Amino acid sequence: MPVKDVKVPLSRVFSPRNEKYLNKNYIDIVMEEGIPVLCINNDSGKERQMPFKVLYDTNDNFWMQVGSWEYFFSNEDFITIKEKAAKKMADWKARIPKIAEKSDELKEPIDNAGFGSEYQAYAGMSAEEKIKCLKKDKKQLNDLLFQKTNDEAEIAKALVDTTKDAAMINHAVLEEAILLADHEAKRLTQDLVDSTQEMVRSSAQLVSENVFNNDMVNTLVEKSNGTIVQHMTRVYLNGIAFLSFYNNLVSSSSAIKKLRISFTGKYSNYYQKLLPHMRVGDINLERVFYGGMRAIPPELYFKWAVGFLIHDIGKAVAVEYHEGEGSYDRNIVIDHVKQGFKSVMTKTNYPMEAGLITGYHHEYYGNPDGYGYYRTYLQQHKKENPDARIDYCISYDLDPVMNYYALAYFPAKVLEIIDVYDSVTDPHRVYRKAMTSEEALAMMQEEFIKKEYKIDAVLFDIFAMFIREQEKRKKK
Ligand SMILES: [Fe+2]
Ligand SMILES: [Fe+2]
Predict the structure, then answer these.
(1) Which of 1, 233, 394, 466 lies 20 to 30 A from 457 at CA?
(2) pLDDT digits (tens, 9 = 90+) for 193-216
(3) Ligand number, closest to the Cα atom of 232
(4) Strand partners, 408
(5) Ligand 1 center to residue 419 CA distance, Å?
């Protein structure tokens, strides 16, 4: 049969990999170009051409219906569809501006995703292969949990490798999902959401069980240097290790007692700047943490861990910018939280907690250097309720943040600190020498707490304890 007579079934065009996935992009192109459908009746052998739109308006998956009619595009039209789709994608990517100048990175840390060629290997996997990979990772972590091994190097390697897989696979799937309608995207990402959550559960448990082993966290950070997803891997692993450290600390009543005693001299002035309508004497630890400072229950811990893993997923939209070593562009950087938030909330069934982490992780308590969704919503809320006052700084739960009783969401405040610290201590930065841990802590104290009110003062002090504890272990 000559090539021009080859017919391609619509099911193969729109759902090439599996029936769950529907290529909405192709449907749009077929509509725009007015590409006709060749309808063939299997019983009578009758053929006729119909406008796609007419059939689609009657039934939006008419080609999947069982009956005597089958539907095809000509091979020529199929090639046109593919070409138009590729052009659309290139136009879409080209709309992302590139700017020639580099700016002061300290003011605005850039998350260094550094994908590189290995990313292509993940992007090229089939949907089944991606899920299989995550399942295999989960099994590997569970085996280590079950064996109760003390081999730090083996645990660290497994944690780093599996985190890299999960971060890259999530990125690759989301890059596809953002092109689809919401319900289709959710269908496409459901298996990914389920298997990522399962993997994170095992991984977070393994970190929390081993975080107090001698050199565990240092080994983790060391091992995740030089891998492709350095930033995402380190932030995730450091983030969950910090949460375990935090939980351990606040479970001892003496730590909270100490904070309470030192609060007036050490912190109340800082928090008064955030709660300016309150008298300094009225501000205490209960004003900083809505409902009082407390440990994080396991269910929340796992949800936050997922949020840490996908916190920069919004970079999937401008993957070329974030992949490259191009110049700093604040608009694109800002956009990653918006895209991340929107994608997680509308294109996946990841929990709301993870969505807020992606959307709120650069807020800096409303400081103009920060950016994100919360400030936008808050502005609107204040416009509608001019007398509204926010009496608390940080909430562990969603409701107080979403109803504007608190200024910030706990895991997002934690992530801000970890993100900045990671950015300035990253040894792989091309154009700036990495800071030592003490230099980084001193700089953050000065620039992000003393001069401005960006990261949280109490959480930062706990973070500094966590880092110094790691350093001590390193020296042993
Ligand atoms: Fe980040
Ligand atoms: Fe980010």
Answers:
(1) 233
(2) 999 999 999 999 988 888 777 677
(3) 1
(4) 394
(5) 5
Report the distance separating Cα 121 and Cα 297, nearest Å.
Answer: 37
Of 240, 196, 239, 169, nearest in space to 349 by CA: 196
**What is the whole-number distance in angstroms between the Cα of residue 462 and the centre of ligand 1?**
20
Residue 14: what pLDDT? 80
CA distance 264 to 403: 28
Query: 46-60: per-residue pLDDT in tens?
Result: 999 999 989 988 887
CB 176 within 8 A of CB 162: no
Three-state SS for 71?
strand
One DSSP character per residue, 127-138 reads HHHHHHHHHHHH
**Locus of tokens 């995730």:** 236
Q: What is the pLDDT of residues 342-374, one digit of tens each?
A: 888 889 999 999 999 999 999 999 999 998 888
Q: Which ligand is nearest to the CA of 167?
A: 1
Cα–ligand 2 centroid distance for 371 (angstroms):
10
Q: How far apart are CA 373 and CA 210, in angstroms?
A: 35
CB count within 10 Å of CB 353 equals 21
Cα dihedral 73, 76, 82, 83, rounded to 10, equals -150
**At which residue do the structure tokens 């399942």 appear?**
135
Could you tell me the distance, in angstroms and rounded to a whole number, from the CA of residue 418 to the centre of ligand 1? 8
Round to whole Å and give the CA distance between 341 and 373: 8
- Write the single-letter amino acid at 160: V
Q: How far is the CA of 315 from the centre of ligand 2 (A)?
A: 8
pLDDT along the chain (476 residues), means of 10: 71 65 73 91 91 88 86 90 76 38 31 56 89 96 89 86 90 87 91 95 89 71 59 88 93 87 92 94 94 92 94 71 61 81 90 93 93 86 88 93 92 96 79 83 94 95 93 73
Distance 227 CA to ligand 1 centre (A): 16
Using the mean position of ligand 2's atoms as its centre, give its distance from the Cα of residue 189 in Å: 21
What lies within 8 Å, CB to CB, of 80 at 6+ separation is 33, 35
Q: Where do the domains of the chain lie? A: 3-94, 117-475
